[in-house]
Amino acid sequence: MKALAVRGVTHSYARTALDGVSLDADAGEFVVLLGLNGAGKTTLFSLIAGLLSLQQGAIQVLGNLLPQRREDALAATGFVFQQPALDLDLTVAQTLRYHAALHGLPRRQAKIRIEEELARFDLAGRTGDLVRTLSGGQRRRIEIARSLLHRPRLLLLDEPTVGLDVPNRRAILERTRSLCLEHDATVLWATHLLDEVKDGDRIVMIHKGRIVRDFACEASSRLAERFAEATTLEAAE
Amino acid sequence: MRAGWLRCFAGVVERECLRFLRQRSRFFASLVRPLVWLVIFATGFHSVLGLSRIPPYETYVLYEEYIVPGLVGLILLFNGMQAALSMVFDREMGSMKVLLVSPQPRWYLLTCRLLAGVIVAIPQVYAFLACAWLWGIRPPPLGYLYVLPAVIVAGLMLGAIGLLVSSVVQQLENFAGVMNFVIFPMFFASTALYPLWRLNDADQALAIAAWLNPFSHAVELVRFALYGQLDALSLAMTVVVAIVVMALAAWRYDSGRILRRQLWTAAS
What we know:
The complex is a heterodimer of chains A (about 240) and B (about 270).
Chain A: E1 4-12, E2 16-25, E3 30-34, H1 41-48, E4 56-61, E5 64-65, H2 70-75, E6 77-80, H3 92-102, H4 107-120, H5 136-148, E7 154-158, H6 166-183, E8 186-191, E9 202-207, E10 210-216, H7 223-236
Parallel strand pairs in A: 3-8, 3-9, 6-7, 7-8
Antiparallel strand pairs in A: 1-2, 1-4, 4-5, 9-10
Chain B: H1 3-22, H2 24-45, H3 63-93, H4 95-100, H5 106-134, H6 143-168, H7 175-188, H8 196-202, H9 204-212, H10 214-226, H11 232-254, H12 260-267
Helix pairs in contact in B: 1-5, 2-3, 2-5, 3-5, 3-6, 3-7, 3-10, 5-6, 5-11, 6-10, 6-11, 8-9, 10-11
């Protein structure tokens, strides 16, 4: 069973944002969704999250067809949104406890997982701190820790490193990659930053709402060239 | 009911309570507003507006006494709109998405928010009733108990209206319009400040508008309950409006319309 199956998804606002997008991801796969700003990454994520209604096409998350089995799909999925989604006046522990409650985790289990995730992201000593007192990188790590509390099998991260410095970007990326190995979780990592790709990653290039390339990266040093080529070809077509 | 649903409800209530406790000024504002009406407005009109014996009152009542249930309604009305404002704020800050991607049905999540808002309103109502008691407005002691379910039902209806408003208002900046187009007309064209028979004497159209206004029924429900009585018509109207408005709000949130504009802006 595919962790994610997107078939012929088309979505329009005032203009077409996604045009016949099809995409599969297997269990434990790390997929980089690479595209410029406005390429359709956020719209695709919003459709998978059920935040937008499907207009055309089909989406299945771990065999759960949307929107009919949206709740089951959401129970198995973790999200990190492009726009930070934290209540600044809650403490770190309160923020994570709120998310655990929304996912129906028993309080004791939630407490254990909160401790585990905070330790994983080097935030163990910050449980009582207000989120507004944390740096941008720490807030992003809180959001990723939050998305993992309910042990999702599919993790969608929409430009999670935007606005962060290089060490923070690297740390977040490496920790997320390790999740695929440790938990067999599927990760869909949306970005427009080419240096976040490494050899062996599966790259799905999206441009103007269409998937233009889907390949395993062999030479990340040549990625900029391939990306430019794909987007230029698409424009010419 | 599944245990996960109860935990979700507890989580939403905890968050709303934490927010409320953080915003102490909100508590005082919610108390000062009706107290200004009671202490200044009602005292000023006390000699002008005498009220003859009308149900649920057994004797002639002073204007201050008449106005108290309306001011309880005012607290609930502002609380409902505060909940709406908080939903719009959450949408702009992104935390609305955290709620909407949790694995519970949308109508249930919204109901949790609605109930959490009412739970936060209850201490505000009782604090005001305590102040009114000190001011000499003293309904029967059991009325303080009977009024609780009425406050909950009225709070649910006004909160549901707030949820629907939040689904229509696109930005925080537009919220000033809610004051002018929702709160003021609902409050002034109701039985909160004057009884229906007086409105009828003054202007029949206004009396009809007040009778149709769901806020009037919420106020009358509270008024009768405070004096140990049940106004069946007000209860029925309040419950029906609450259910219909809540269903509309749930439909709007479920249809993906709410975040569509925001996501489109982000995608562009």
